[in-house]
Amino acid sequence: DSAEASPLVVFENIERCNPKCLRMLLENISGLTEDADFTVELIPEINVAVATFIKHIDTKEFVEKCSQHKRVREFNMTARLLESTQSIKAENLPESISSDYLTVYFESARNGGGPVADVQLFPEENSAIITFCDHKGNS
């Protein structure tokens, strides 16, 4: 059901399309404006970008348009909906952070959280993996 589709679209194999070019390409395909209607987060370590649509659109239809678009094909990029996950990675955490604090923080409805099943701290990289009881609590 398109109404339930994720507002997040993953673009893979982005190395041949610089960030500014990618943003313009997404504006051209969607007819929307970056910042007002969507944002793009680059994850260069894994050659991926994630577009988050603020304005409600049919993301399944958008992914289909992308897969047929001449420029997307020329760049050998692929687009797909971001699947739901039960775990997230929190980075740049203060050194003194505790798993109890993170649990309470991510369980807070005000922070968009939900019931937390597990928190794994990685102090050497100031990060943690937070696993939720269900995938609704990780927006």
Describe the fold and architecture.
There is one protein chain. With about 140 residues, this protein is of the alpha+beta class. It folds into two domains: about 10-80, Alpha-Beta Plaits (2-Layer Sandwich), CATH 3.30.70; about 85-130, Alpha-Beta Plaits. The chain contains four helices and seven strands, in the order βαββααββαββ. It has helices at about 20-30, 60-70, 70-75, 100-105; strands at about 10, 40-45, 50-55, 80, 85-90, 115-120, 125-130. The longest helix has 12 residues, at about 20-30.
Unreliable stretches: none
Amount of beta strand: 25-35%
What is the overall pLDDT average?
Answer: 89
> Percent helix among the residues?
25-40%
Strand order of the largest sheet: 2-3-1-4
Domain PARP14 second RRM: 5-83
Protein name: PAR14 polymerase
Pfam family, one: RRM_PARP14_3
InterPro entries: Nucleotide-bd_a/b_plait_sf (IPR012677), RRM_PARP14_2 (IPR057050)
How would the blueprint of this fold be written?
Blueprint: E1 8-12, H1 19-30, E2 38-43, E3 48-53, H2 59-68, H3 70-74, E4 78-81, E5 87-90, H4 99-107, E6 116-122, E7 127-132
Antiparallel strand pairs: 1-3, 1-4, 2-3, 5-7, 6-7
